[in-house]
């Protein structure tokens, strides 16, 4: 028996490869099918099953394409209704894979079809659970995403409480927990950076698994402090229910070099958004006017999903040479399938053609500190509310990047703003969005709050009146 976690850091997502006696199963696959196919071929195995723990909201699964290419059977738990062929398994149903068994544990709460798959080894021992978004390391899945009709988040939290205590906490302590996500995912609040653990340890350390916890306490704690889900979540769920097209088709359309004139025409006359995926320092120095920066070397796909509301938005992009296919792939993982190509030759080609460029003024934290001493500055903190509340520059204004478009009325085009996040990635995204909306008096603080905290700039940990709710 072999179990391998295939973890994708930019999405904080874990897919799984299970193999026994020449038969393999994939749990919660990403959009691209080929890596799983190649993995099975290397192991001399045939993919028999594709197990989906639920309808994912934060990424588009490649289950339909993978099934078409391998003749594998797609398996969901109870309550799953799709537009493609799959097995809607019953609670307690067992699937044989080589010499091991995979048992269906229906664990509603995160969503009503949420299911945990229990791996039983060759000796009949309960070995591991693939818990999807039901149980994370240090947390549990948020219960607000599947509200429908009269079904509230409190109702879902109640179902989750029962699922955890009747289906998962009754399992042996030595069972390994393999969740669908780790720290950085928006599917939970307090996930650990660890991506796997023993169930016994989670019973001791996970706040939601306290032995003496009442259902009322659980509902209160699990629902407290939930931020609104990213707007693309519902659209990804719909794509996963209907079955998205394969990555091959997306790459054929999107991984296309465009000359400067064609690129410019698509941006100016065909409504394509210009996405700059280079490093923040490169974008600051020079970029195509009105382009949006979301660097590939960061939480790229989740920020695309959070900030570009329409999955059908035409996109053309600028990238470091050799990374074009990666960018189209990562966009497709969160459902952005309308990528039309990239600027051939990058920004060098744009400048060589005599096209206009823009820039973002970026200064080190030390210079920011000196300017603060010289006079009052307007400071925009684009970190999450919890980060802001923990500690922030005195009199700074909270403008969380997640909700920047909804809060544009909180800033003025006539003022100069010094913008920062934690380390510099999000502040450059925010600066690019503000500049594209006509806010040209923007100064980025390189290194973010980490660098600021190493200066003598006064900070505070209370929530000041300027905080945006």
Description of the molecule:
The chain is an alpha/beta fold. The protein folds into 3 domains: 2-234, Metallo-beta-lactamase, Chain A, CATH 3.60.15.10; 245-352, Oxidized Rhodanese, domain 1, CATH 3.40.250.10; 361-460, Rhodanese-like domain (Oxidized Rhodanese, domain 1, 3-Layer(aba) Sandwich). 30% of the residues lie in helices and 22% in strands. It contains 16 helices and 24 strands. It has helices at residues 34-43, 63-70, 153-168, 199-205, 215-223, 232-242, 247-254, 260-269, 280-285, 300-307, 324-332, 346-352, 365-374, 385-390, 425-436, 448-452; strands at 2-8, 13-20, 23-27, 46-51, 73-76, 87-88, 94-97, 100-106, 115-120, 126-132, 176-179, 197-198, 257-258, 273-276, 292-293, 315-318, 339-343, 361-364, 378-381, 392-393, 397-398, 417-420, 442-446, 459-460. The strands form 5 sheets. The chain has a 6-stranded mixed sheet, with helices on one face. A 6-stranded mixed sheet has the order 7-8-9-10-11-12. Strand 8 (100-106) and strand 9 form a beta hairpin. Helix 3 (153-168) packs across helix 5. It is globular and about 70 Å long. 48% of the residues are buried.
């Amino acid at each position: 028996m072999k179990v391998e976690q295939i973890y994708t850091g930019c999405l904080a997502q874990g897919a799984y490869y299970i193999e026994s006696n020449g038969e393999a199963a994939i749990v919660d696959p990403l959009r691209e099918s080929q890596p799983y196919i190649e993995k099975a071929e290397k192991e001399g195995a045939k993919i028999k099953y594709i197990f989906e723990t639920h309808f994912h909201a934060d990424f588009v699964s490649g289950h339909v394409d993978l099934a078409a290419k391998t003749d594998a059977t797609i398996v969901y738990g109870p309550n799953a209704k799709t537009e493609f062929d799959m097995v809607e398994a019953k609670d307690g149903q067992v699937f044989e894979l080589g010499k091991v068994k995979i048992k269906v544990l229906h664990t509603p709460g995160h969503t009503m079809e949420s299911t945990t798959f229990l791996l039983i080894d060759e000796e009949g021992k309960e070995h591991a659970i693939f818990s999807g978004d039901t149980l994370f390391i240090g947390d549990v899945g948020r219960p607000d995403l599947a509200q429908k009709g009269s079904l509230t988040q409190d109702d879902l939290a109640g179902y989750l409480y029962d699922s955890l205590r009747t289906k998962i906490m009754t399992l042996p302590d030595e069972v390994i927990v393999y969740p669908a996500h780790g720290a950085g995912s928006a599917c939970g609040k307090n996930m650990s950076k660890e991506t796997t653990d023993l169930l016994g340890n989670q019973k001791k350390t996970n706040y939601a698994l306290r032995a003496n916890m009442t259902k009322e306490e659980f509902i209160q704690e699990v629902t407290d402090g939930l931020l609104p889900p990213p707007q693309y979540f519902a659209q990804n769920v719909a794509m996963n229910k209907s079955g998205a097209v394969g990555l091959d088709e997306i790459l054929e359309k999107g991984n296309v070099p465009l000359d400067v004139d064609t690129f410019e025409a698509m941006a100016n006359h065909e409504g394509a958004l210009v996405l700059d995926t280079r490093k923040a320092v490169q974008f600051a120095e020079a970029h195509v006017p009105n382009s949006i920066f979301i660097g590939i070397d960061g939480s790229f796909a989740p920020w695309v999903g959070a900030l570009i509301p329409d999955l059908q938005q035409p996109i053309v992009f600028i990238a470091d040479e050799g990374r074009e296919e990666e960018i189209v792939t990562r966009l497709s993982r969160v459902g952005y399938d309308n990528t039309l190509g990239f600027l051939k030759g990058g920004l060098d080609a744009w400048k060589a053609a005599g096209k206009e460029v823009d820039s973002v003024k970026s200064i080190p934290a030390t210079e920011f500190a000196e300017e603060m001493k010289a006079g009052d500055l307007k400071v925009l903190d684009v970190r999450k509310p919890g980060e802001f509340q923990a500690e922030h520059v005195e009199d700074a204004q909270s403008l969380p990047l997640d909700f920047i478009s909804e809060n544009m009325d909180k800033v003025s085009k006539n003022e100069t703003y010094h913008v920062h996040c934690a380390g510099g990635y999000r502040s450059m995204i925010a600066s690019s969005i503000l500049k594209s909306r006509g806010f040209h008096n923007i100064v980025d603080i390189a290194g973010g709050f980490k660098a600021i905290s190493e200066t003598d700039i006064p900070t505070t940990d209370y929530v000041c009146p300027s905080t945006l709710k």
